[in-house]
Write a structure and sequence with these properties.
Elements (H helix, E strand, L loop, with lengths): L8 E4 L6 E2 L1 H14 L7 H7 L4 H11 L6 H18 L5 E2 L3 H10 L3 E5 L4 H10 L8 E3 L12 H9 L7 E5 L2 H10 L2 E5 L16 E3 L7
Parallel strand pairs: 1-4, 1-6, 4-5, 6-7, 7-8
Antiparallel strand pairs: 2-3
């Protein structure tokens, strides 16, 4: 790996990479299941389900209750979840260690930054603002403002075009197999954090270029 500061742009995943958001998501899912009279999943269950966007998270919570929801049932559950999430988003979420320090250092070195997540834009922007890091990102590719979501390469290509930076000069930093697959599909170097969610699986099995335990290693 070349030095991180030799790249011209860095793409960051959100949940499990920049922000520990599992408790917010767990709160909203549990309120949804309560209103539907269903069994509540544990916080660890939620961590294992994060990574494909909130609609998929809701679908997994229903499947946990042995419900294979049709479109109407899924939309109803998702509306309940979304209302609950709006009430609590940012309430329990915190930045992982050294996140802000790394973002400051990257911008100080004139490196462009993008946030690439499968979370809906509404909640992405709120979380970035709530944790006071929204000002660092020139581009946000969220789950509902791009054509295709990770693991598709499209969000990374879109971000590189918006930042006017070739993908060879970009690096992706994420916590899940979807981040790694998206980077591989785009031909982009990828760094994985070991502390994220990744469906309960060890990130090393997804073969990122580098694994770090803390952003402190990149400062």
């Amino acid at each position: 790996m070349k030095n991180l500061y030799e790249y011209k742009a860095v793409f960051f995943d959100l949940d499990g990479t920049l922000i520990d958001s599992a408790k917010d998501l767990s709160f909203a899912i549990n309120r949804m299941t309560q209103e539907l009279g269903l069994k509540e999943p544990s916080l660890q269950d939620i961590k294992n389900w994060i990574g494909n966007g909130t609609l998929k998270l809701v679908e997994r919570a229903l499947a946990f209750n042995n419900i294979k929801a049709n479109e109407k049932e899924l939309n109803k559950a998702f509306e309940l979840f979304s209302n609950a999430y709006r009430d609590c988003v940012g309430e329990y979420s915190t930045l992982f260690p050294y996140v802000k320090e790394l973002l400051v250092m990257l911008l100080a070195n004139n490196i462009k930054l993008a946030c690439i997540t499968n979370k809906p834009l509404e909640f992405t922007e709120f979380l970035l603002q709530q944790n006071m890091i929204s000002q660092f990102f020139s581009v946000i590719c969220a789950g509902d403002n791009v054509k295709f979501k990770k693991p598709d390469k499209w969000p990374l290509i879109h971000a590189s075009e918006k930042l006017n930076t070739p993908l060879d000069d970009c690096v992706m930093i994420g916590d899940s197999q979807h981040d790694i697959a998206a980077a591989r599909n785009a031909g982009c170097y990828v760094i994985a954090v070991s502390y994220g969610y990744n469906h309960g699986e060890d990130i090393k099995h997804s073969n990122p270029d580098v694994i770090i335990d803390s952003f402190n290693e990149l400062l």
